[in-house]
Design brief:
Subcellular location: Membrane
Shape: globular
Radius of gyration: 24 Å
CATH superfamily of the largest domain: MFS general substrate transporter like domains
Number of domains: 2
Helix content: over 70%
Number of strands: 0
Structural class: mainly alpha
Number of helices: 25
Main location: membrane
InterPro entries: MFS_dom, MFS_sugar_transport-like, MFS_Sugar_Transporters, MFS_trans_sf, Sugar/inositol_transpt, Sugar_transporter_CS
CATH architecture of the largest domain: Up-down Bundle
Largest sheet: none
Oligomer: single chain
Keywords: Membrane, Transmembrane, Transmembrane helix, Transport
Strand content: under 5%
CATH topology of the largest domain: Growth Hormone, Chain: A
Family: Belongs to the major facilitator superfamily. Sugar transporter (TC 2.A.1.1) family.
Length: 517
C-alpha cells in the first residue's frame, strides 16, 4: 500500500498490506475517483484560506496611517498551533476543520472591524490559530479519504489551493488599493474589504465540511467499524459488497489491529486507549535506524521548504519589491500580484506529473542561482535604484522566476515525498514551526543584512539540492520497496511482517491480496 500523508492512526512503516492498484497519478486516475476529487477540492478551501496572505495591506497608505508597522503576518501564529493535532484525533477530521474555520472567522471579523492595534493583533492571533490548524487538518483529511493511486496528486492539490489563495489575495489587494485613491484620500475600505473577504471561504467550509463523509481511518481508530464501512461506500461510490470496498476496509482494519498489538507488546497489556495509541505511534517512529531515517528525510525536506526564502517573499512581497527599487505602493502591489500568478501557473502541471527527486534537485539548484543573482544586483545597486531602474526590474524578474521554480518543485513535491516517507506528524509540525521562525526572521534580516538575506536563503537552496541527491526515490514504490530503499533489513521488520500476515489471515484479508483494480 502506498504511504499515506497524514496517517496519524495507522502508520505501519515495516509491515503492511500490499495494495495492487493502477499506476499512481494522472488525469485518468483522478477522473476515476472524481467523487473523492470533488470532496478534496471542497476541503481545500482551507488551503485557499491559508494562502490568503493579505500582506499587501501592510503598505497601503490608509493602513499605515491608522496602525503602527506590523512586521509579521498571521502565519507567525501558524507554527505555534498547527503542530497540535489533538482536536483532529479526539473529535474527528471534519469537526476539527470546522472548529479551525470558527477561529479563522473570529479572527477575520476582529481584523475587519478593528479600530485600534490591539483588536487587530488579537484578530491576527485567532486567524493564525485557525489557518494553522487547517494546514494540518485539510491535508490529513484528504489523504485519509484518498485511494493510493491519487494520493500524491491530492497532496499537490493542497499546494495548488494555497497558490490560488495567494494569487487571489494579491490581486484583491491591488484592486482595493484604488478605493478612495492611492494616497491621502484612500479610505479604510481599501484594507477592510480584503480582511472581510476571508470570511467567505471560512464560512462555506465551516458549514459544508460537516456534510461530507468522515475519514474511515479515524472511525476505525475509534472502534466505529460500521460507520467506517458506510463512509467507504460513500467515498468510493461503489456497492458495500464490492471487492474494492471490502479490501480497503479490511486493509485499514488490519493496520489498526496491528497498532493495537504493538501497543499491547510495549505496554505489557491491551492498549486501545487514545493516549496509549498516540504514544505507540510516536515511539514506533524511532524503533529502527530506517524509521529514524524516514523522520530525518521528512523533517529536513520541510525545513528546506521553509528556509529557501519563499515564505519571506510571500509574507513581505510588497516591502521586498519596494526594497528592490520599485517606487510607489501601486507598482509594488502589481509586482506582488505577478508572484501569485506565476506560482499558480507553475503549480498546475505538478498536480498531475511528478518526477519528485529530479524535480526537487533541479528546482533547489535553480532557486539558489536566482538568489545569487538577486543578491548581486541588490548589493551593487541598493543605494542607487532610482538611477538604475532597469536593474531593479531585472531583480524583480528573478524573484518571479524563483517563485515559479518553488511552485513546481519544493512547494508541492515536498508534500508528496513526505507522504512517501510517512512522517507527516513530525514533518508537518516541523514545517509550520519553521514558517513561524522565517516570518519572524525575515524583516530584521532585510533591514540589517539587506542583500545578504538573499545569500543566506540561497545557501540553504544549494544545501537542499545536495541533500535531495541522497534521499531515496519514493515514486511508485510499495511499502515493502520503501523498507529496502531506507535500508531496513532488521529483525524487527521481519517480526512485524509475520504479525501483519497473521492479522491479515484472521480478518480474512489474505484472500484479496492478489486482487487488482
Amino acid at each position: 500500500m502506498d504511504a499515506k500523508l497524514g496517517d496519524s492512526s495507522i502508520d505501519v512503516s515495516h509491515a503492511s498490506i500490499t495494495e495492487n492498484t493502477e499506476p499512481a497519478g494522472g488525469i485518468k486516475a483522478l477522473w476515476r475517483e472524481k467523487h473523492v476529487m470533488s470532496l478534496a477540492l471542497f476541503s481545500n478551501l482551507g488551503g485557499f484560506l491559508y494562502g490568503c496572505v493579505f500582506s499587501g495591506i501592510l503598505v497601503m497608505s490608509n493602513f499605515e496611517r491608522n496602525f503602527p508597522p506590523i512586521t509579521t503576518d498571521s502565519v507567525t501564529m501558524k507554527g505555534l498551533v498547527s503542530s497540535n493535532s489533538w482536536s483532529s484525533e479526539k473529535f474527528g477530521r471534519k469537526q476539527s476543520i470546522s472548529l479551525a474555520c470558527a477561529f479563522a472567522i473570529l479572527g477575520a471579523a476582529l481584523q475587519t472591524g478593528a479600530r485600534n492595534p490591539a483588536f487587530f493583533y488579537v484578530g491576527r492571533f485567532f486567524t493564525g490559530v485557525g489557518v494553522g490548524a487547517l494546514s494540518v487538518g485539510v491535508p490529513l483529511y484528504n489523504t485519509e479519504i484518498s485511494p493510493s493511486r491519487i494520493r500524491g496528486g491530492l497532496g499537490s492539490l493542497f499546494q495548488l489551493s494555497v497558490e490560488l489563495g495567494t494569487f487571489v489575495a494579491f490581486w484583491i489587494d491591488f484592486g482595493c488599493n484604488y478605493i478612495g485613491g492611492t494616497a491621502e484620500g484612500q479610505t479604510e475600505a481599501a484594507w477592510r474589504i480584503p480582511m472581510a473577504i476571508q470570511l467567505i471561504p471560512a464560512l462555506i467550509l465551516a458549514v459544508g465540511i460537516l456534510f461530507v463523509p468522515e475519514s474511515p481511518r479515524w472511525l476505525i481508530s475509534r472502534n466505529r467499524d460500521e460507520a467506517a464501512r458506510r463512509a467507504l461506500v460513500s467515498l468510493r461510490q461503489r456497492p458495500e459488497d464490492s471487492k474494492e470496498v471490502q479490501m480497503e476496509y479490511l486493509q485499514i482494519l488490519g493496520e489498526h489491529k496491528f497498532q493495537q498489538e504493538l501497543g499491547a507488546l510495549e505496554k505489557g497489556s491491551e492498549s486501545d486507549g487514545f493516549i496509549s495509541s498516540a504514544w505507540n505511534q510516536w515511539t514506533y517512529l524511532f524503533r529502527s535506524a530506517a524509521n529514524r531515517k524516514r523522520v530525518l528525510v521528512g523533517v529536513a525536506l520541510m525545513f528546506f521548504q521553509c528556509w529557501n526564502g519563499m515564505n519571506g517573499i510571500l509574507f513581505y512581497a510588497p516591502t521586498i519589491f519596494q526594497g528592490l527599487g520599485l517606487s510607489g505602493t501601486t507598482v509594488s502591489l502589481l509586482a506582488t500580484g505577478v508572484v501569485g500568478a506565476v506560482m499558480l501557473i507553475a503549480t498546475l502541471p505538478t498536480v498531475l506529473f511528478l518526477d519528485q527527486k529530479p524535480v526537487l534537485i533541479f528546482g533547489a539548484l535553480a532557486m539558489g542561482v536566482c538568489h545569487a543573482l538577486i543578491a548581486g544586483l541588490s548589493g551593487k545597486y541598493e543605494d542607487s535604484w532610482e538611477s538604475h531602474k532597469a536593474a531593479g526590474w531585472v531583480a524583480c524578474v528573478f524573484v518571479w522566476i524563483f517563485s515559479a521554480l518553488f511552485a513546481m518543485s519544493l512547494g508541492p513535491v515536498t508534500w508528496v515525498i513526505t507522504a512517501g516517507v510517512k512522517e507527516w506528524r513530525i514533518a508537518g509540525s516541523s514545517s509550520w514551526l519553521n514558517a513561524f521562525a522565517v516570518s519572524m526572521a525575515t524583516p530584521p534580516m532585510l533591514e540589517s543584512l539587506k542583500f545578504g538575506t538573499y545569500i543566506f536563503f540561497g545557501a540553504w537552496c544549494f544545501v537542499a539540492a545536495a541533500f535531495c541527491v541522497f534521499i531515496p526515490e519514493t515514486a511508485g514504490r510499495s511499502l515493502e520497496d520503501m523498507d529496502a530503499a531506507f535500508g531496513d533489513t532488521s529483525r524487527t521488520s521481519e517480526q512485524d511482517q509475520e504479525r501483519m500476515n497473521r492479522i491479515n489471515h484472521e480478518i480474512g484479508y489474505d484472500k484479496y491480496q492478489d486482487t487488482k483494480f
